[in-house]
Design a protein that fits this description.
Two copies of one chain form a homodimer. Chain A is an alpha/beta fold. The first copy, chain A, has helices spanning 23-35, 81-91, 103-113, 129-144, 161-164, 196-213, 241-249, 272-275, 302-311, 322-337, 340-361, 389-401, 426-443, and strands spanning 50-54, 57-60, 65-68, 122-126, 148-152, 180-183, 218-223, 253-257, 282-285, 296-300, 365-371, 374-379, 404-405, 407-409, 415-418. Chain A is globular. Chains A and B meet through helix 1, strand 1, helix 2, helix 3 and strand 4 of A and helix 1, strand 1, helix 2, helix 3 and strand 4 of B.
Chain lengths: 444, 444
């Protein structure tokens, strides 16, 4: 059962619940069923009809406010005026493709690349995280002339054919590629004691050996440095270094999937890998890059990109268009101008402290962990570590009723995934903790 | 040599030309080289630095106007105020993902699906044409439990790993998939006489048989009804019907790639397949759908989508977000409100007539063909049909010098690809013909 869990379906609308919805919401759901289909994923037992957003707040059709602690896209705040103005201005000025020259794309690339380790000086623009991971796989395969890929056992990297094959969390109906091997995520809660980094590296070495034994040449490892889909693992800093050394020793590339931890979310730095003191061979990014505008990218070393670009070519019609570049530039300006990396660090520390207090009062909380504003709360059987998925689902839906939006992560769906916009304020963090406490009090 | 031709590189900047550029343009090119890399594709021997667009016109840094007869994205006109206003309004109101309820996505889906054949009642939203084709392949594979795909021999369907494998025009460094078979496009110019549709169908039947002989179960055929990358073939109407019958008789699906001919471009109807009286099993769309905003989609029958959606799941973070839906809705409203399908038909007829006149005066023009505002001009050796790539390249660059932008198509790069915005006016069509005539006069 757990193996078949799709990361998307945990809090999906129960069809039997349809008749209990208010007429307006039911009408929307039915229109949705008749156009997108009844199996198109929808959040919550009682789905949420949204009409506007501002800062960390979303508002429903009755103007009720919800504190958004889930959506890692509108990362500088919903409908941030600086980003909206940039999109409106550029959409009204020039919207062509990158085979023409225009200044803003290079200005953006320069500003983005300045946040990267020195060796990473090339950017390819795409529209989505999935496109970025797919492109990174194509580049890696071409550069290494190899196909073997290592991912964690409940990873999610995206939705194209090739990327679904390296996303085990997509469920049993989506086969993992024959060229793919999985390793357990560096889970220090369920596997305490010992050196989590050394254990992870040993698993990676074993996976490389297994690929070689099957005659599959090793190309590289792709991981998200917060292991979001696996259940959010962030400590100790540096736990990835030994595994990355092993990857490189075997001739593979280390691909950092920064779609989730990137753009300051971990509080320690602009990029999740920097928190671990790493310099990847390829970095893929997406979600918060344009605060909602579809823009994503791949950053790498010139020698890795060059042969692929020369021989295979890559052109993305919408990728890096002037509006995308303007939106992405505005996001960098807001992160810098409003000090959002530092705020993520400060508010993340405050949030973790509040959650630790709840943990001391509620035995169902097995673990609290995170970096900056990427935080996990793991629910387990009191006194043990058995995953408690049911309580997690009740908490997510209970918080929705109390005006707070969060999601879940992990192979057993028993980890709260908390990712508020980076602009969240102290009183909003406290509100989240208070509401979570209220829901947990009801569980007693 | 021709086999290695990448569709993107024909008119690329020659590196040796760099020193002849004006200082400002050279500076931009160098900034581009230092960020995107020197192999990132760029148009024209002398690249074009654009600063704004309006209607069918683009303007360079010196405010020189260029008539855009190439870009099949800003299809209702560059920076159309109605589309820009919709993007600005919705970006400032709500930009979340489709797992929440919001009205505009369903309103858009209803309006879009109303333009489709009756059986096609389900829409999945993505961000790019490549994502749409990739998703269509995943759905097809799941529904047919088969992998064999037929494409034309110089097709281009996109840039993901799986889609590059069905895009032979991507060049020799990008292998065609082992589960893919190619058939010649229905070319009535180089293969005159006989029934072009019957010939195409015979080739498709042979390809199906070959797949079966290799133990590869046949899944379907994907073609673009104007065969854009193969060289633009549009006549006679209905030439695809017999091949589609053969595909279905063998249990395969017919996937219509409408990224190029869709949204009214062929003048006869909203969709290229309607011109041939066909009803596809799956339709993929992209480029002009949001007039530059990254939005794309897949339309199919409920029974084809249902199993895939239920078992494999598909969620696209940016796909169908409120801003994308608003932009796409505005595009449909402009197409309808300004009568752009009829204008494409009328202006296309005018353009073909003008080009026929040029053909009668210039022996280098071997053929003129097209539907609506998707028009090809094939250059051949005078008196013969040998492709003349050199003159085509000179014409494209000569027109750029005279303020008209067009591109090329076909395996030999000897077909002018003419696709002005659907809002082009009669005097602008005449200007294009006049300028082309001037360039050809210089060739004498």
């Amino acid at each position: 059962m757990d193996d078949k869990l799709n990361i998307l379906d945990l809090n999906a609308l129960d069809q039997r619940h349809l008749e209990h919805l208010d007429p307006e919401t039911r009408d929307l759901v039915l229109r949705r069923h008749h156009t997108l289909g009844a199996d198109s994923p929808l959040f919550y037992r009682e789905p949420l009809h949204l009409v506007r957003g501002r800062g960390p707040w979303l508002y429903d059709a009755r103007d009720r406010a919800y504190l958004d602690c889930y959506n890692n896209v509108a990362s500088v705040g919903h409908c941030h005026p600086h980003v909206v103005a940039a999109i409106a201005r550029e959409a009204g000025t020039l919207a062509v493709n990158s085979r023409y020259l225009y200044d803003i794309l290079y200005a953006y690339a320069e500003k983005l690349l300045a946040t990267m380790p020195q060796t990473l000086t090339r950017l390819a623009m795409t529209c989505t995280g999935s496109e970025s991971v797919d492109l990174a796989l194509r580049i890696t395969r071409h550069y290494t002339q190899a196909s073997g890929i290592i991912v964690t056992s409940h990873a999610y990297h995206g939705n194209t054919t090739a990327v679904a094959e390296i996303s085990p969390s997509s469920g049993l109906a989506v086969p993992i590629g024959q060229h793919v091997r999985t390793v357990p995520a560096p889970d220090s809660y369920l596997n305490p004691g010992g050196d989590v980094g050394a254990r992870f590296a040993a698993d990676v070495r074993a996976a490389i050996a297994q690929l070689q034994r099957h005659g599959i040449k090793f190309a590289g490892m792709i991981v998200d440095s917060v292991f979001s889909s696996d259940g959010i693992f962030t400590e100790p800093q540096g736990f990835l270094c030994e595994a990355v050394d092993a990857v490189r020793a075997a001739g593979g590339l280390y691909i950092a999937d920064e779609v989730q931890p990137g753009f300051g979310r971990t509080g320690a730095a602009m990029w999740g890998f920097l928190r671990h003191g790493l310099s990847p061979d390829i970095v893929v990014m997406g979600k918060p890059m344009g605060n909602g505008y579809p823009v994503a990218g791949v950053v790498t070393r010139p020698e890795i990109l060059q042969d692929f670009a020369r021989n295979c070519g890559y052109f993305n019609t919408f990728g890096g268009n002037p509006v995308a570049a303007a939106a992405a530039m505005a996001v960098l300006e807001v992160i810098e101008g409003e000090g959002l990396v530092a705020n993520a660090q400060a508010m993340g520390t405050r949030l973790l402290a509040g959650l630790e207090t709840l943990k001391s009062r509620h035995a169902c909380i097995g673990d609290v962990r995170g970096a900056g504003l990427f935080v996990g709360v793991e629910f387990s059987t009191p006194g043990g570590t058995e995953p408690d998925r049911e309580i997690t689902s009740r908490v997510v839906n209970g918080l929705r009723e109390r005006g707070v939006l969060i999601g879940t992560a992990g192979p057993h769906g028993n980890v709260l995934k908390i990712r508020p916009p980076l602009c969240i304020a102290a009183e909003e963090v406290d509100l989240l903790v208070t509401r979570l406490g209220e829901v947990l009090d009801q569980e007693r």
